[in-house]
Amino acid sequence: MTDTVSVARSHEDRVIPSVIYGLYFIGPFTGFLTTLIGLVIAYAQRGGAGPRMETHYTLLIRTFWLSIGWVLVGLGLTVVGFILSFVLVGIPALILGLVILGVFGPALLVWKYIRLVLGATYLARDEAYPRPMSWLF
Description:
137 residues; mainly alpha; elongated
């Protein structure tokens, strides 16, 4: 009897992370509103999650913040570089900011989707994500 309850709980426990992965997947097509909704749900659910699902919530939360971090670095360098380029000091920062946004922007999207596909794969197998705190995958 106990095994049936734990199997049902395990299956039920995977529903919310699955929904969040889906929200993250469609995020770029919805103006990232669904990604923000997924982030809020991940934060709300992480505290009460079991150890396996907690790794998925951690992965999803870190994926969001690492993505935002790189975009903010690129935007910050571009804005500061643009302002300081009038005195020629900011040209390297402007170029670096534009490279981060232009070249690494698409690479960042590919990185995000690789993390999401790997996470969803581990979730489908009902396994914990092995490295939720990693910077790469």
